[in-house]
Amino acid sequence: MPPSDSAARSAALAEIGALERSCAELEAALQEHDWERLDAAIGTARRITHSLEKELEREDLDRDDAFDTLVRERLERIHAIRERQIVRLSAYHEELGERLKTFVKFKAYARSIGANTIPPRRAGLDSQQ
Length: 129
Known about the structure:
By secondary structure, this protein is an all-alpha fold. The chain contains three helices and no strands. The longest helix has 48 residues.
């Protein structure tokens, strides 16, 4: 069996493929703002990363320059995708924080002018069915 077709190499490349697919799942969850799905995808990516580390540390893994270059290029691409996702998620987090600050300021202002006696917005909605 040629070294390029070894079971250890195939297993390592399969884990990299799974990590690439997990990036796509993370992206879909991020775009949909599906935070539960995002959390599950992050957990899955963490497990895949751990499994990939174990596969790359196997003693029977026949590594050469071509294999190492292929792995490095794919992992660098995954890293770049994840970095962009983190930047976008951080920006969303900051934007949400600013919105919440504005909401808190508005609520404090409303209370200062006597809004404590105004019923909540949902009070009238419950009776309309």
